[in-house]
Design a protein that fits this description.
This protein has 298 residues and is of the alpha+beta class. The chain is built from six helices and 17 strands. The strands form five sheets. It has a five-stranded antiparallel β-sheet with strand order 5-6-17-8-15. A four-stranded antiparallel β-sheet has the order 2-1-4-3. A three-stranded antiparallel β-sheet has the order 7-12-11, with no helix packed on it. It starts with a helix and ends with a strand.
């Protein structure tokens, strides 16, 4: 074999290896994976929400994207069967890629309930399970059972899932803060009763999916500005003036009965209101329901 033939053969072999590698790369994709630290963070966030809501108990279960149990914690006072129920909720949310509220409401729908679905294996169509998404990928699920109500089960689960929305407990090759994505079904679920979509841990902002069905108290946030976008409904919104019978209800938070000498506005879908920190504000004469986003900036 001549030297030239040897070079050509080597080149062809190298090209073949590169071609195979490129083909293999085209058939795969980068996949996010839930770590044990991430699962523990989900549980910690759900427990913090339980404390905030004065929940009498609850079992919090976290599974990976295959439905395998990664972590579980049973709060004091929770009935023993809650563990199996919470695991079932988490697995159902993962395997069907949507909150379990969808299935409970589907099964209970008057006149068109799909009760036959309850015969499926490993299927728990009970409110309180939500998928955990990072960068639009489902990396696991969280299920809660045994809180004060089914709605509170779901609120705890959403708080846990949201704790990983920024992906900080998952492996990443990019040191920059990743984009946060909220799946449509998760947003719709949050607006069912109102919930925090993105908490303020490590940030100077929060995002709330807020819902009002009746007037609220007068409020003053001494550190947070509220950026409000009305999504649905109408209300009379009072700002400025002086809070009546105001009391401090939490650090930097005050609530009162009403507002004296404030400015009244009629607000509706599409309106945007910016309330600076320290300014009294109150929703009165609220339609049912009033849905609006609130971005709190500190």
């Amino acid at each position: 074999m001549t030297k030239q033939e040897s070079v050509i053969r080597t080149f062809l072999a190298t090209a073949g290896i590169l071609s195979s590698a490129m083909f293999a790369s085209a058939q795969t994709m980068e996949k996010k994976t839930l770590t044990l630290a991430g699962a523990e963070r989900v549980i910690a966030a759900a427990k913090a929400e339980a404390q905030k809501l004065n929940s009498p108990g609850g079992v919090i279960a976290v599974v990976d994207d295959g439905g395998n149990l990664m972590a579980l914690e049973r709060l004091d006072g929770t009935f023993p069967a809650g563990a199996n129920v919470s695991i079932g909720k988490a697995r159902t949310a993962v395997m069907f890629k949507r909150p379990t509220r969808f299935f409970e409401e589907l099964v209970n729908s008057s006149g068109k309930g799909r009760t036959v679905m309850t015969a499926l294996n490993d299927f728990t169509p009970l409110i309180g399970g939500v998928p955990i998404l990072v960068d639009n990928q489902i990396v696991g699920g969280v299920g809660v059972s045994g809180a004060a109500s089914a709605q509170q089960d779901e609120e705890l689960a959403i708080a846990g899932a949201n704790s990983l929305m920024n992906g900080s407990s998952l492996p990443s090759g990019n040191s920059a803060a990743p984009v946060t994505y909220f799946d449509k079904t998760l947003v719709e679920t949050a607006f069912q009763k109102g919930a925090v979509l993105l908490d303020g841990n490590g940030r100077n902002y929060m995002v709330h999916a807020s819902r009002r069905e009746k007037p609220g108290q007068a409020e003053v946030h001494t550190r947070d500005a509220d950026l409000i976008y009305v999504l649905q409904g109408t209300a009379t919104f009072v700002t400025g003036g002086e809070m009546v019978a105001g009391k401090e209800t939490a650090a930097d938070e005050f609530r009162g009965d009403s507002i004296r000498n404030g400015q009244m506005r009629q607000i509706a879908k599409g309106d945007v209101i910016v309330v600076p920190s320290g300014v009294p504000h109150q929703f009165v004469e609220v339609s049912n329901p009033l849905l609006y986003y609130v971005v709190k900036v500190r």
